[in-house]
TrEMBL record:
Pfam families: ABC_tran (PF00005). It comes from Fictibacillus aquaticus. The lineage of its organism: Bacteria, Bacillati, Bacillota, Bacilli, Bacillales. This is ABC transporter ATP-binding protein. Residues 3-231 form the ABC transporter domain. InterPro entries: AAA+_ATPase (IPR003593), ABC_transporter-like_ATP-bd (IPR003439), ABC_transporter-like_CS (IPR017871), P-loop_NTPase (IPR027417).
Amino acid sequence: MKLKLENVSKVFGDKKAVDNVTTELTSGVYGFLGANGSGKTTLMRMLAAVSMPTSGVISLNGEDISDMGARYRDVLGYLPQHIGFYKSFSVEKFLQYIASLKGLEKREAKERIAELLEMVNLSESKKVKMGKLSGGMKQRVGIAQALLNDPKVLIVDEPTAGLDPKERIRFRNLLAEIASDRIVLLSTHIVSDIEYIAKEILIMKDGRLIQKDTPQNLMKHIASNVWSVDASDAEIPSYQASYKVGNITRRAEGIDLRIISEKKPAPQAVNVPVNLEDLYLYYFDEEVGA
């Protein structure tokens, strides 16, 4: 299974939302990381065949997905950033409705729905109406509907926004479990969602794909740029004005600043291990500041 993008761009008026993206994806979890407006959602919509590229080609196993039509939708599962639900439908009825839209036979759909409800831990809530569900439960219904046709390409866009930490952990563990034999694309700006499960991270900025590598290699790339600095209260504004300050930690013995900088920010500064939040700040400091 190979999903390939070749010089893919999307233009809206005079704005280039996605700018000449070329990459190749195989089985496993891929995390698309970027600030709001970076082009992630536009790219995901093109990968889901909801929107067509202005230029360039997206192909699955060598065939243009725009030529595949229904055959591509048969192997695709999609959970958009905002999914519409019928509030009066029960969880089970909603999934039956989506299964019918996807062309599943009634008996097959019944068995598949039961299997997925167990997978997303909603079996006991199958008769609950959608309007009564929590945000996390709705997202689990969302991933269940995306998996109804056992897709080989699963695309989920900002799936954990607004979820509490427990629900986020449960959701990303579920994605990791199902990714062994399919391509899973996860778009997010919450770095912890992809830190432990992503095979590779694709960093989007201003519509361009600026980095694509394993989390370990990406963090290794900036290993010498993350510092710990002891500082006083009076010194903090000066450091913030001159450097990217990722964290301010107050301890009994004083204040510790976590700084991302290509040069040593102070004589007493020492390098510290890198995490994905440092990586995000390295590329998107202006969005963090805003």
